[in-house]
């Protein structure tokens, strides 16, 4: 028997630090996984034994922490981009057909020691694949080490060179010198050379300590006497326990060939094409393969310098029946950027750049005047027989419209084509789509403009670099369109794209351009009000702390909580500062620590003050006097819109502060705001998709759904029901949608987890259809990788099979909620597409100006506000046909708070 024992934890960190950051198409970091797979593949090729296992640490806390609670306490938390890779690496190990061994309460090094002992006792040998100095104590006849990076053995000479003693004496030396990385105390003042000299002279740690009183007076003698107990403790911490349990028998480690299908699936999932090729696992193309990618080269590209050249491009577009356009502006947000140039592509590899507003030197090729460009391009952009292809058409059209090119149709948007069939599967920016679908790395903006302080404006960047970037962007859009548009029909996403996503583009563009009015004076007053309340809370915090400090400083707050006040549960991060994020404060607040709750209150006000009260004033456009948010159409997993600059989706809904912020959004003089909000839309969708007769009946009768639920679950009559019982039913109703746990419900209601579990069990007993829906939906996600909304939108759930239980459980909650939240998003989008035309046909001047989740906000002349509200309610309630009625609640007011 030749047992190869791989130090899996060592492999992980070596791989992570050896490779630059890498991500899969879905954004998951995989550089450590890729490095680990490469190291494992090389090991299997060059150093295979008869038996092999990869050994991992099961967790940070082991029996050593009970011996010494500060053991490894100073080790920083692993980088956040590494944490999700731990589970993937274990999955990789199993994909290679190897056992992944770990055991709670024991370190990987202990298991390696135990298996090495078992192998030699069985008459075999063990090879430890690691360069970890802590494992060097195990070297002896029959047990060797191999440095996986240098690919060289580690023997007696290497151990003696490092420690000054043979392997069997290593623990004696380590006990004296300690280990600052693992927080093993040792004896202060004694280093490796001094420790080796003592052990070589006296033989063992115990004999050194016994001899210390008779040594010549010195600081070293005093330290040995004073810290003898620490040295003995240190030896217990550093010695590896070869008597640890064996999680699996040795005969289960017999090396077998990997299953090509299993390994290939893992490598495909993680986008490791080069490794697949190297291991001969390319395999057959998958079903539903997209059209073949064009073999045309990307570039070189040229710039358009004459009217004749531009007319030639337009002629090519008319012949091809299409043109892809990349719109380049001098600002990231199209609402505020000026048109600088256009990339124009008529076929793969046939792309050019049209400069319009570059700061060119006198000897550069002159650029066409905008008026001449418009005269040539406008007829083409309006031609019904020429399809105009964009990536993020909303942003591109906004910039073109401001430049004077307004009539542009028909269009397609490759970002939305991708989003309609792959929401949640990966990001939908152009570089990601190019990498996923074309296996091409797109040029970055930084390559054109530089970065940091030296960054140039786009109009001032070298024209050759801008040409290469912008022309490639148009070329990519055209190739992506050829690749992705046919797949809409295959994935049954064509109707969603053509009837919802694409028609929403002009609706949102008009909303963004019009904007919403805010009260500058009221914002200033609200800022002062929040500042006053923050000062009151700060005074309260200082009283509870017993001293003044900067509440906004996480470092000072951590010192107050965990050093001055000695509160439990503190942990230090990489910088050595105490962690004080929301999870830490919430845990303390749940334990009744008042200062933690007050700090959370202070932070909430500080965030609202900076994000809304102060920031909104600066975001008022001087030309319109309004705030213009930007709606992101392809950012969420479920189809919901999000907004930026400012983000209006995160205003608290049910808090006093959220209501106060809404009051600062006002109507123009002579106008009112109309709020139209879908009532309990996700609960209604739950009743519909899970086919729950009791809930459907209640919605049909217009009953109080929470009171009905309380009556059904708790067996109490609806009439005269107390508020607490209804509140508990409401918490369960909404919690179930988000996969709430007994612990979560208990925390929300302030009850014991056991009582909360009783409520949830009673709920599922009364509504078994919900449990069935949840299980069926999770199974659909596990089988296909996505779930469907009632309207056919695919919502991908990438981590549904994750080996890490917490990540898998989170993915399951996502899977359960996505058809409901996504269904709600589909319905309100249907309504938004219909509303502008309905308002125009009714002869109304009312305008749709905002969308926030299940709510739409309109600005209407006072005289037509009632009529417009009724029309909006009718259109929204008829936006979809469900087995339960859709209900929309409307309100009218001079500000959003009064209308909401």
UniProtKB/TrEMBL annotation:
Q: What class of enzyme is it?
A: transferase
Q: Which reaction does it catalyse?
A: DNA(n) + a 2'-deoxyribonucleoside 5'-triphosphate = DNA(n+1) + diphosphate
Q: What EC number(s) has UniProt assigned to this enzyme?
A: 2.7.7.7
Enumerate the spans annotated as DNA-directed DNA polymerase family A palm domain. Answer: 658-864
Q: Name one Pfam family in it.
A: DNA_pol_A_exo1
Entry-linked InterPro entries: 3'-5'_exonuclease_dom (IPR002562), 5-3_exonucl_a-hlix_arch_N (IPR020046), 5-3_exonuclease (IPR002421), 5-3_exonuclease_C_sf (IPR036279), DNA-dir_DNA_pol_A_CS (IPR019760), DNA-dir_DNA_pol_A_palm_dom (IPR001098), DNA/RNA_pol_sf (IPR043502), DNA_polI_H3TH (IPR020045)
Q: Which GO terms describe its biological process?
A: DNA-templated DNA replication; double-strand break repair
Q: Which Gene3D superfamilies match?
A: 3.30.70.370, 5' to 3' exonuclease, C-terminal subdomain, 5'-nuclease, Ribonuclease H-like superfamily/Ribonuclease H, Taq DNA Polymerase, Chain T, domain 4
Molecular-function GO terms, alphabetical = 3'-5' exonuclease activity; 5'-3' exonuclease activity; DNA binding; DNA-directed DNA polymerase activity
Tell me the protein family, please: Belongs to the DNA polymerase type-A family.
Q: What is this protein called?
A: DNA polymerase I
Native source organism of the sequence: Acidocella aromatica
Its gene is polA
């Amino acid at each position: 028997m030749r047992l190869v024992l791989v130090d899996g934890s060592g492999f992980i960190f070596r791989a992570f630090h050896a490779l630059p950051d890498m991500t899969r198409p879905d954004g998951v970091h995989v550089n450590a996984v890729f490095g680990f797979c490469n190291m494992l593949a090389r090991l299997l090729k060059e150093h295979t034994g008869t038996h092999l296992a990869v050994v991992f640490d099961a967790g940070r806390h082991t029996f050593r922490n009970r011996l010494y609670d500060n053991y490894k306490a100073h080790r920083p938390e692993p980088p956040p981009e590494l944490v999700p890779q731990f589970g993937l690496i274990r999955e990789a190990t199993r994909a290679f057909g190897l056992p992944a061994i770990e055991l709670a309460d024991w370190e990987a090094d202990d298991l390696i020691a135990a298996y090495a002992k078992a192998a030699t006792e069985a008459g075999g040998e063990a090879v430890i694949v690691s360069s970890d100095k802590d494992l060097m104590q195990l070297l002896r006849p029959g047990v060797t080490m191999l440095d996986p990076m240098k690919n060289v053995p580690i023997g007696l000479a290497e151990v003696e060179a490092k420690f000054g003693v043979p392997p069997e004496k290593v623990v004696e030396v380590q006990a004296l010198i300690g280990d600052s990385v693992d927080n093993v105390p040792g004896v202060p003042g004694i280093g490796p050379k001094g420790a080796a000299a003592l052990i070589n002279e006296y033989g063992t740690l115990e004999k050194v300590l016994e001899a210390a009183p008779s040594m010549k007076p010195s600081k070293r003698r005093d330290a040995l006497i004073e810290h003898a107990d620490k040295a003995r403790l240190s030896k217990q911490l550093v010695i590896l326990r070869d008597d640890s349990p064996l999680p699996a028998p040795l005969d289960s480690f017999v090396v077998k060939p990997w299953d090509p299908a299993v390994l290939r699936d893992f490598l495909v999932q993680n986008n490791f094409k080069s490794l697949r090729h190297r291991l001969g696992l390319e395999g057959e193309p998958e079903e539903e393969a997209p059209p073949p990618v064009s073999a045309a080269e990307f570039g070189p590209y040229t710039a358009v310098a004459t009217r004749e050249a531009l007319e030639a491009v337009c002629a090519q577009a008319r012949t091809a029946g299409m043109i892809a356009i990349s719109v380049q502006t001098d600002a990231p947000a199209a609402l505020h950027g000026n048109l600088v140039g256009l990339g124009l592509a008529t076929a793969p590899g046939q792309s050019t750049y049209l400069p319009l507003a570059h700061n060119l030197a006198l000897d550069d090729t002159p650029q066409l005047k905008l008026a001449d460009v418009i005269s040539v391009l406008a007829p083409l952009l309006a031609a019904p027989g020429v399809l105009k292809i964009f990536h993020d058409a909303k942003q591109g059209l906004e910039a073109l419209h401001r430049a004077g090119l307004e009539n542009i149709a028909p269009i397609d948007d490759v970002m939305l084509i991708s989003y309609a069939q792959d929401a949640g599967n990966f990001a939908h920016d152009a570089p990601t789509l190019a990498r996923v679908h074309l296996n091409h790395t797109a040029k970055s903006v930084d390559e054109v403009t530089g970065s940091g302080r030296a960054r140039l404006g786009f109009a001032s960047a070298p024209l050759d670099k801008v040409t290469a970037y912008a022309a490639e962007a148009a070329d990519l859009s055209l190739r992506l369109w050829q690749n992705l548009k046919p797949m809409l029909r295959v994935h049954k996403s064509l109707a969603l794209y053509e009837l919802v996503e694409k028609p929403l583009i002009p609706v949102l563009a008009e909303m963004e351009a019009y904007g919403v009015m805010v009260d500058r004076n009221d914002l200033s007053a609200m800022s002062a009000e929040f500042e006053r309340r923050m000062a009151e809370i700060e005074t309260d915090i200082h009283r509870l702390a017993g001293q003044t400090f900067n509440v906004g400083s996480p470092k000072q707050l951590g010192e107050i909580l965990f050093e001055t006040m000695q509160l439990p549960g503190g942990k230090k991060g990489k910088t050595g500062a105490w962690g004080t994020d929301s999870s830490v404060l919430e845990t303390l607040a749940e334990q009744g620590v008042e200062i933690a709750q007050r700090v959370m209150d202070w932070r909430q006000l500080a965030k609202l003050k900076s994000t809304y009260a102060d920031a909104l004033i600066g975001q008022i456009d001087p030309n319109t006097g309004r705030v213009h948010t930007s709606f992101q159409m392809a950012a969420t997993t479920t189809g919901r819109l999000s907004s930026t600059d400012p983000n209006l989706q995160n205003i608290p809904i049910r808090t006093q502060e959220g209501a106060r912020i809404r009051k600062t959004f006002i109507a123009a003089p002579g106008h009112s705001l109309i709020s139209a909000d879908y009532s309990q839309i996700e609960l209604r969708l739950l009743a519909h998709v899970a086919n729950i007769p009791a809930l459907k009946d209640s919605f049909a009768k217009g009953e109080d759904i929470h009171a009905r639920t309380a009556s059904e679950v708790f067996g109490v009559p609806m009439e005269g029901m107390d508020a607490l019982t209804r509140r508990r039913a409401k918490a369960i109703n909404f919690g179930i949608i988000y996969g709430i746990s007994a612990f979560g419900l208990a925390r929300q209601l302030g009850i014991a987890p056991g009582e909360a579990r009783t409520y949830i069990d009673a709920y599922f007993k009364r509504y078994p259809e919900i449990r069935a829906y949840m299980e069926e939906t999770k199974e659909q996600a596990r089988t296909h990788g996505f779930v469907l909304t009632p309207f056919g939108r695919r919502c991908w759930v990438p981590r549904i099979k994750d080996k890490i239980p917490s990540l898998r459980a989170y993915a399951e909650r996502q899977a359960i909620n996505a058809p409901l939240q996504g269904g709600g998003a589909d319905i309100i989008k249907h309504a938004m597409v219909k509303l502008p035309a309905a308002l125009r046909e009714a002869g109304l001047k009312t305008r749709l100006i905002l969308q926030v989740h299940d709510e739409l906000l309109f600005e209407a002349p006072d005289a037509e506000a009632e009529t417009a509200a009724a029309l909006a309610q009718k259109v929204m309630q008829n936006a979809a046909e469900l087995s339960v009625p859709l209900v929309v609640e409307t309100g009218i007011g001079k500000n959003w708070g009064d209308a909401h």
